[in-house]
């Protein structure tokens, strides 16, 4: 059951990321993030109110607020990267996020296992393969979206650190606090940059879908951890970029060279080893 729930959660994350990337090609990234996150936040609030889970207090949720700041930067960079670059390049690089909590744990005395060191090495090799491409003149250059994908990975990684600390009293309220932070800061950023948050009517169903798909993905993964080992859940759910890559190939006809495809699978394999360790 844990494996099935984790795989289904990863599947939903991959679909949501693909739709987020598509929407960001037609709408300001801030609008995509704020509207979809607000929809997901509403759904989570309904779930928590129906289950009657008690509020743990503001102090207990402060780390989750920090997680919200991190994920706002991460998801904004991620959607923008998916919009301007190849999804098959951006998605695998962003999956390197688990390296951040691993480094955080190492700084507090928890040394990575040999398997995790191997995973880190594979991630670096995969990112190096994905990041570089040949320009029309034959010179090497960074692939479009690479820098944004790295920022996304860092943002997602610090989100894991913050949400882990903030979920000690209540995982549900920690996620709500993080999402509320994303929406609040996103609205403020939109006001500061005069970015409209009103989506075209034609795109509203897609944004609703992104919000609910992401929310249900999080619920399934959280539920999976109650049925089996967290390590197994982390490994299986971390395969979400495969879904994004496959949809990019099937729906928008994105094609990567054999070397890029290999680099993507190597990076994903490394992320899986880091999560497994």
Residue share in helix: over 70%
Poorly predicted spans: none
Shape: globular
Distance between the ends = 21 Å
Q: Number of helical segments?
A: 12
- Sheet-strand content, in percent, reads under 5%
Rg from Cα: 18 Å
Topology as a string of helices (H) and strands (E): HHHHHHEEHHHHHH
Q: How much is the average pLDDT?
A: 85
Tell me the total number of β-strands: 2
Structural category is mainly alpha
Strand order of the biggest β-sheet: 1-2
Main β-sheet description: 2 strands, antiparallel
Task: Kindly describe this structure.
The chain starts with a helix and ends with a helix. The chain is built from 12 helices and 2 strands, in the order ααααααββαααααα. The mean pLDDT is 85. It has 277 residues and is mainly α. It is globular. A two-stranded antiparallel ribbon has the order 1-2. Helix 2 (29-51) packs antiparallel against helix 8 (171-192). The protein has helices at 2-24, 29-51, 58-84, 87-94, 99-107, 114-131, 146-166, 171-192, 204-224, 230-237, 240-251, 258-276, and strands at 132-134, 140-142.
């Amino acid at each position: 059951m844990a494996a099935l729930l984790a795989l289904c959660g990863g599947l939903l994350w991959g679909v949501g990321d693909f739709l987020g990337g598509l929407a960001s090609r037609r709408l300001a990234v801030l609008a995509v993030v704020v509207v979809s996150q607000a929809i997901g936040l509403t759904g989570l609030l309904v779930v928590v109110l129906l289950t009657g889970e008690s509020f743990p207090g503001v102090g207990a949720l402060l780390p989750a607020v920090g997680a919200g700041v991190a994920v706002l930067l991460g998801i904004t960079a991620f959607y923008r990267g998916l919009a301007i670059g190849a999804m098959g390049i951006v998605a695998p690089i962003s999956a390197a996020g688990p390296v951040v909590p691993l480094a955080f744990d190492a700084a507090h005395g928890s040394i990575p296992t040999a398997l995790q060191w191997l995973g880190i090495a594979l991630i670096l090799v995969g990112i190096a393969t994905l990041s570089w491409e040949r320009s029309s003149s034959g010179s090497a250059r960074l692939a479009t979206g690479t820098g944004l994908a790295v920022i996304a990975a860092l943002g997602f990684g610090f989100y894991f650190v913050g949400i882990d600390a903030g979920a000690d009293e209540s995982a549900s309220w920690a996620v709500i606090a993080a999402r509320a932070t994303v929406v609040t800061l996103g609205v403020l950023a939109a006001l500061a940059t005069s970015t409209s948050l009103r989506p075209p009517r034609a795109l509203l169903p897609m944004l609703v879908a992104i919000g609910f798909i992401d929310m249900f993905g999080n619920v399934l993964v959280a539920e999976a951890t109650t049925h089996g080992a967290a390590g197994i859940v982390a490994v299986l759910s971390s395969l979400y970029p495969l879904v994004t890559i496959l949809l990019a190939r099937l729906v928008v006809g994105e094609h990567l060279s054999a070397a890029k495809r290999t680099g993507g699978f190597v990076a994903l394999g490394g992320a899986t080893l880091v999560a497994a360790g």
